[in-house]
Amino acid sequence: MARRLRSSTVVLGGMGVLAAVITSCGSEPDKRCVDPLTRDKLPSYECKSGKGSYYYGGSSKNGKVEGGSFDKSAVDRGGFGCSGTGGG
């Protein structure tokens, strides 16, 4: 005997998926404060004081960043169904 889903259950489940897609597309990329010349990670207050710059995306290994960009709009935000071409 097949079990039937109520239409309200299907609608609510679909809305949950839609909400997850919308919020994942609008999420900010990871950012770190870095020395722009050496790419060494710095405390966040160094960026607020102007001594460091924010580095978006990428990864950190042994205190240095790689694979990202100082240009926020150049970093793919990822997420299901996102094109990564949105403005920033």
Task: Give a short overview.
Helices cover 27% and strands 22% of the residues. The protein contains two helices and three strands, in the order H-E-H-E-E. Strand 2 and strand 3 form a beta hairpin.
Protein described:
Residues 84-88 have low confidence and may be disordered. The protein has helices at residues 7-25, 44-48, and strands at 31-34, 53-61, 64-69. Strand 2 and strand 3 (64-69) form a beta hairpin. Helices cover 27% and strands 22% of the residues.
Main attributes of the structure:
27% helix; three-stranded antiparallel sheet; disordered C terminus; alpha+beta
Structural class: alpha+beta
Strand order of the largest sheet: 1-2-3
pLDDT averaged residue by residue? 75
Main sheet overview? 3 strands, antiparallel
- Total count of strands: 3
Give the uncertain stretches in residue-range form. 84-88
Q: Strand-residue fraction? A: 15-25%
Q: Report helical residue fraction.
A: 25-40%
How far apart, in Å, are the first and last alpha carbons? Answer: 52 Å
Question: Helix and strand string, N-terminal first?
Answer: HEHEE
| Cα gyration radius (Å) | 20 Å
Describe the secondary structure blueprint for this structure:
Elements: H1 7-25, E1 31-34, H2 44-48, E2 53-61, E3 64-69
Antiparallel strand pairs: 1-2, 2-3
